[in-house]
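Customer escalation, tier 2.

The customer says the design service returned an amino acid string that "doesn't look like it belongs to this structure." They asked us to rerun it and document both sides in this ticket. The original structure tokens are below, unchanged.
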């Protein structure tokens, strides 16, 4: 199920700097959330596992079933919307999993995604937005007039923006020591820019859902590019200081403004 991926050059250098014990595997099967039966295969390639769980009282009753699985005692890795690379510290040592869906993607782009995962492991932050929001997730759900699935997508985006605030200075600092990875970071940001142009108007006119727009704009926070309103307000030191409470208040004010337009 998992084949260890050999890292070399800049990527290996970055691992030694940020997550020296982490292992990187190519997953043979694609997935959103790995079921416990598959996750147990990691016992064959790691020293042990310590499953995460979250307080189910943080979840509104109509939260997607996936969130209840993640919050419970079931050993799960990954969640819908995580993309082609996921990581976890539930194993010893931590692991990064590269999904088959990335086959055919440029190797440099895959290297950047792996590098990003290694940096996030090293930062020591939460693995999932539930660990970021905690009981503020219920407040977020109450603050926005969105479906449970769209609220999930928005929460994931807001978490991405928060993490991006921490990772961006690290990525920007690669210019001299890790120039190839730095170039991939720059390129990934440039490829986001066309989608960001006119995004605010697309939301106002109903051409793009708010949650889809948030996912795109919040992904851009980790890049040194212009972020459209109202999402630019999240790219603020205040978000670093106040965390989930800031995100909830931003959502309340944003939807209040949208309702008056």
């Amino acid at each position: 199920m998992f084949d260890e991926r050999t890292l070399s050059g800049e990527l290996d250098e970055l691992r030694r700097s940020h997550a020296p014990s982490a292992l990187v595997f190519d997953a043979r099967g694609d997935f959103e959330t790995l079921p416990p039966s598959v996750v147990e295969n990691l016992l064959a390639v790691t020293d042990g596992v310590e499953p995460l769980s979250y307080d189910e009282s943080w979840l509104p009753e109509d939260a997607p079933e996936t969130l209840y699985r993640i919050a419970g005692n079931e050993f799960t890795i990954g969640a819908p919307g995580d993309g082609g690379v996921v990581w976890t510290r539930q194993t010893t040592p931590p692991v990064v999993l590269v999904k088959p869906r990335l086959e055919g993607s440029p190797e440099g782009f895959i290297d950047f995604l792996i590098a990003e995962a290694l940096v996030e492991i090293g930062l020591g932050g939460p693995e999932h937005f539930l660990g970021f929001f905690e009981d503020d997730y219920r407040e977020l759900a109450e603050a926005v007039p969105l479906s449970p699935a769209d609220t999930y997508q928005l929460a994931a985006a807001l978490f991405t923006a928060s993490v991006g605030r921490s990772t961006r200075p690290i990525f920007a600092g690669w210019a001299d020591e890790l120039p190839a990875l730095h170039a991939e970071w720059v390129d990934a940001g440039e490829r986001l820019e066309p989608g960001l142009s006119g995004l605010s108007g697309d939301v106002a006119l109903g051409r793009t859902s708010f949650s889809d727009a948030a996912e795109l704009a919040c992904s851009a926070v980790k890049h040194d590019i212009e972020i459209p309103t109202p999402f630019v307000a999240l790219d603020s030191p205040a978000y670093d200081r106040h965390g989930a409470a800031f995100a909830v208040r931003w959502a309340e004010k944003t939807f209040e403004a949208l309702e008056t337009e």
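Tier 2 assessment: The sequence is consistent with the input. The radius of gyration is 18 Å. The beta strands are 2-4, 23-27, 48-49, 85-88, 91-92, 95-98. Sent an explanation to the customer and offered a walkthrough call.
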